[in-house]
Structures are given as structure tokens and as C-alpha cells.
What does this fold into?
Amino acid sequence: MAETKKVRVRITTVGHTYVGDFVIPPMRNRVSDVLNEESRLFVNLTDVVIND
It folds into this structure.
């Protein structure tokens, strides 16, 4: 059975950079697979550091 994976990602917006842990569900293999889902409206990060 596949397991969830936790990866460290960096997300940059106009004003800030967020670095945090992102969980990839078992039915996906890559971060891009999850982020490109049409139904995804929100990116949930944990253990986040915000850089200005």
C-alpha cells in the first residue's frame, strides 16, 4: 500500500516566501501532481517559516 510523503517546499508570492512541509497523498507521486489538481484551491503547509 502506498504511503503519504512529506516534502519541504518553497512557495514564493509577490510579497513573501513561505517554506514549509507539504503532504503528498498516496495516490500522487509528485508535488506538481497535487498542485495541478483542478479542484485544489488551497495549499496546506505545516511547520512554516515566512521570509519577507
